[in-house]
Amino acid sequence: MAIINNPATDPNKILPMKYLWARKHYKDGVANNWTPEEISMQKDVEQWKSSSHISPHERRLILWNLGFFSTAESLTANNIVLAVYRNVTNPECRQYLLRQAYEEAVHTDTFIYCCDTLGLDPEEIYNMYKTIPSIKKKDDYVVELTKSIFDPTFTTEGTENIRKFIHDLIGYYVIMEGIFFYAGFAMMLALKRQNKMVGIGEQFEYIMRDESLHLAFGCDLINTIKNENPEVWDAAFQEDIVGLIRKSVELEKEYSFDACPQGLLGINAWQFCDYVEHIADRRLERIGLPKLFNKENPFPWMSVSTDLSKEKNFFETRVTEYQTAGNLQWD
Q1: What local confidence, expressed as pLDDT, does residue 69 receive?
Q2: Position 252 in a domain
Q3: Residue 331 pLDDT
C-alpha cells in the first residue's frame, strides 16, 4: 500500500488502517471540538467601545489580524476540499481531511462571530487581503505556491508531479498554516495576557490548537510521501524548499512590523520576528531539513496554548482548557 498512486486502494474501505498517525490526528481533533459562541465576548465589546482600554495601534493590530485570518482560513479550506482531498486517496487520511475541513469552517465562523459582535465593517475586514500590502503578499505567495494542484488535469503520477504535490503541500501546511499564522497568533495572545480582548484571544488560542494538529498531519503526510518515494527528495529539491521557507519568513517578518510597529507592552516587533524564525526552524526540522536561524523562543508561553492534553475547568466562568465531555477523565 502507498499513500498516493495506489490503484489497489479502495477509498471507501477504511479498515484495516495502515497510517495510524492519521487516525490519531483525527481523534485528537474531535477531542478538542469547540465553537465560537461558547466564548463570551461581553468584556471585549466593553473594551472595544472604550478608548481607554484599547489603544489606536492595538485596535489596528486586532483589525489586521482579523482581516488576514478571515480570508486565509477560506484559502486553506479551498486547498483541502478542492485539491488535497482529491489527490490523497487513502481513506484514513481522507477522514482527517474531512475533520480539518470542518475545523476550517469553524474558524471562518469565528471571524463572522467577531465581526458581528464588535459591529465591524465586513467590507473592510474581508478586503484586507487586497488593501493591506503585507497581507496581500502573503496570500499571493501561497496562492502561487499551491496553484499546480488546482489544475483539474493534475495527477501525482511520476517523479516530477510528486515533487509538485509535495511542494504545494509545503506551501499550504508548512508555510501558510505553520509560519504565516504564527506572528498573528503571538500578537493576539500577547494582548490576551494583558487582559485585553480576552474573548477574541481565547478564540485565537483554540484556532492555534487546531492549527498545531493541521501542521502535524501535514508534516506526517509530506514525510510519508517522501519516505515512499525517496527519489523525489534530492538535494536540488531540498534546496528549493529551503528557499521557499526563507522567503516566507521574510514576508511574515514584514507583516510583523506592519501590523505591530510599536510592539506591545514588554514586546517589540523584533521579538515577533525572532519568534517567526524560531518556529520556521521547527518546521524545517519537522520535514527533515536543517535549521536556518537558530533563534531561541522569545515567547515560551506560546507553547502552553497548543497543549492538547488538558481539560476544561468547569469551576471557572470562562473556558480555559477544552475537550469534549466524552474525553474527560475524572480523578
Answers
A1: 96
A2: yes
A3: 39
Q: Does residue 120 sit within a domain? A: yes
113 has catalytic annotation: yes
pLDDT tens per residue, range 24-68: 999 999 999 999 999 999 999 999 998 788 999 999 999 999 999
Q: If DSSP codes are grouped into helix, strand and coil, which group holds residue 60?
A: helix
Phi, psi of 36 (to 5 degrees): -65, -30
Q: What's 244's DSSP letter?
A: H
**CB distance 308 to 296 below 8 Å:** no
Whether 181 and 69 have beta carbons less than 8 Å apart is answered as yes
Number of domains the chain contains: 1
CATH number of the domain that 214 lies in?
Answer: 1.10.620.20
What is the pLDDT at residue 1? 58
Q: Which of 37, 45, 58 is nearest to 117 (CA)?
A: 45
155, 170, 162: which is closest to 229 by C-alpha? 162
Question: Per residue in 83-104, pLDDT tens?
Answer: 999 999 899 999 999 999 999 9
Quote the domain boundaries for residue 170. Answer: 58-310
Nearest residue to 88 (alpha-carbon basis) of 2, 182, 211: 2
- Cell numbers placing 247: 522567503
Burial of 123: CB neighbours in 10 Å, binned 0-12, 13-18, 19+: exposed
| Secondary structure class of 198 (helix, strand, coil) | helix
Domain membership of residue 53 (yes or no) is no
Contact between 251 and 137 (Cβ < 8 Å): yes
What mean pLDDT is predicted for residues 261-273?
A: 91
Exactly one of 19, 26, 96, 113 is catalytic; name it.
113
Distances (CA, A) of 300 to 152, 198, 204, 279: 43, 19, 17, 12
Evaluate whether residue 82 is within a structural domain.
Answer: yes
